[in-house]
Automatic annotation (TrEMBL), chains A, B, C:
Pfam families: HK (PF02110). It is an enzyme of class 2 (transferase). It catalyses: 5-(2-hydroxyethyl)-4-methylthiazole + ATP = 4-methyl-5-(2-phosphooxyethyl)-thiazole + ADP + H(+). This is Hydroxyethylthiazole kinase. It comes from the Bacteria.
């Protein structure tokens, strides 16, 4: 498999500064906005049923994360996702802890009917969405990436979307092409909501690179991998990691992204 | 125009540590609280209809920011703003993205009837509130400050309040006196919700300086300008900027504020 | 009074990484999650009535903080607290500003009937819960720790729970044993929601040390005391303090905790 240079994806993001409508959990809102601004996208957070469809229709992308879900938010998420589907606006689903409660499973199933462009999830969540046994313990991923790679491919084929399954190693697939990405740093799981922010960043990258959704998704994950690695070199713990990570995303160049991403093509498993 | 030394405004804030009742968006809550604590005010966040009026009545100031608006919050905001108006408590309106949806315009029009002391907004929002064409793209300001200065003056005169319009250059006006303020750093727009926090800080400054609302507003903006400039000198990106900015607000002295603020009197345009 | 070495409590936390179901205020969510992850616990934030009991039943601990209370959240908190009581899951109540409004007093009284394991509060809140005069000014503590020590003992005896009253000096009591803890740094009150995060950390420590709830509570507070002191040595203000504090919690060893905690046994006053 060949794909567009990842650096081009980042250059396009910075040139177009896509407006990403983020419906995300309360824990992640601030950090998500900062991650997008640091990298080069433009975040906007709003969720009221009175305005959500109106706003999604004018945004360049939508990102839905169900972390701190509630009934009114679930309703608004349906409105936004339906609008994104109707207006052909790229949208990303982040099904936080979908295997943990029936409420989450029900809401996610309804959201899937609006055809997300990308599902960004950990291994447990991918397995739960694919209908395989979930060993999800709250928001942790306890299934191994190897166990879940097959589930990711199955889910991508069934939903006709990209699945970006992140963990120590990331797996990105559109059902036909499968890629593995390494990088990052062991401190990353010690900082909350980095994955949530990544979902919104994927939305921005896909919006800025409409012709290349798989490479765009990969580029977003590679930004995290490289910036995470760099931040980890300087950090003394999760506090200094967060600071260095935002700085590294800001300083990251398209050339860095093209030359330093650790991508490997996978064959179906 | 002459005005009170800005350093006096900061000294008064630190001496009285005004309790600022903040009704702000989910993205901004944590950073707003930290910005107020670093500078010398005392934040409290609560919003339930069951208690909001009771609390506003005992606070020294109120700050309302409609960022992540919803119907229940809009109702509580009306209760709080009405209480502030009735009890003569200074209050600040931050009309985030008011031009973006009908819902926001409707809620803001209702809030304006409770006579805010100060409106803190970007150029697009000022133009939308003034009834002029808004080019607002979500939460971004795309109207130039020059285009919007006239709108700010018009809005201040119509509402009989102070308008603090922030951007690369700030314009502060009470309808009769018009001031321009420069400072800050290009990294500031790369950090989320600094403007939201500034609105709450303005509320604190006005509460601590009831006789001098225009100078108090100017002092709050000047704190951001000087601290932002200093933080920018040390920062490697938006992560280290945030850290240095909180430290700079904490270290800022009244003498710094009086001597380093870059204020220029404007004539009506 | 003798108690288990505090370092053992931290070692147990890190070995079991307890899943702490956090129902906390919007201001505190992100910082609470990061404080738990840095120290070694696993946070999960969710609050919908549709799922909250289901989740509490599988978590290792529950922490309820009423900071940005609303009627739907109050209802969910009752469901979660009742579940924790029924399933014998340790749970912590953080009654933010309980003395400030009638709404908060009513909600806290109902929550107390579900028998919290620990109440973590400042002096004003302890006095309000104990039914003594509160001088609470919003979320600030204006009652002195000395004034409130008696109230803490009374409350612990009446509720048959641990009361962890924090301030410049902390007082921890189960009604029979009373301990005083010093440490920390004057910058800590200049950073928002550290106390809120501490409540959730107490929940994690108690879950990881079911046989020793008093020592576990003390260990959580001692982590904050030592890490706060260390962070304060390096910080230039509240921005760099936050970064250094997360790093210090991450770097803290069980040996540090056993050797450096400043604990003193109290006699009833």
């Amino acid at each position: 498999m060949t794909y567009h240079p990842l650096g081009d994806m980042l250059a396009a993001l910075r040139e177009s500064t896509p407006l990403v409508h983020c419906m995300t959990n309360y824990v992640a809102m601030n950090s998500t906005a900062n991650l997008l601004l640091a990298t080069g996208a433009s975040p906007a957070m709003l969720h009221a049923a009175e305005e959500v469809a109106e706003f999604t229709a004018m945004a360049n992308a939508l990102s839905i994360n169900i972390g701190t879900l509630s009934a009114p938010w679930a309703e608004s998420m349906q409105l936004a996702a339906r609008t994104a589907d109707t207006t052909d606006t790229p949208w990303v689903l982040d099904p936080v802890a979908v295997g943990a409660t029936e409420f989450r499973q029900r809401v996610c199933q309804a959201l899937l009917s609006h055809r997300p462009s990308v599902i960004r999830a950990n291994a447990s969540e991918v397995m739960a969405l694919a209908g395989l046994a979930s060993q999800g313990r709250g928001v942790d991923a306890t299934a191994s990436v190897d166990d879940a790679t097959h589930a990711a491919m199955t889910l991508a084929q069934r939903q006709r979307c990209i699945v970006a399954m992140t963990g120590e190693t990331d797996v990105i697939t559109d059902g036909s092409h499968h890629v593995r990405l390494t990088g990052g740093h062991p401190l990353m799981p010690r900082v909350t909501t980095l994955g949530c922010g990544l979902s919104a960043l994927v939305a921005g990258f896909v919006a800025a690179n409409r012709e290349h959704p798989l490479a765009a998704t990969l580029a977003a994950l590679a930004c995290f991998g490289i910036a995470g690695h760099r931040a980890g070199q300087q950090a003394k713990g999760p506090g200094s990691f967060q600071v260095a990570f935002l700085d590294a995303l800001y300083q990251l160049t398209p050339e860095d992204l093209s030359s330093q991403s650790q991508v490997e093509t996978l064959h179906a498993v």
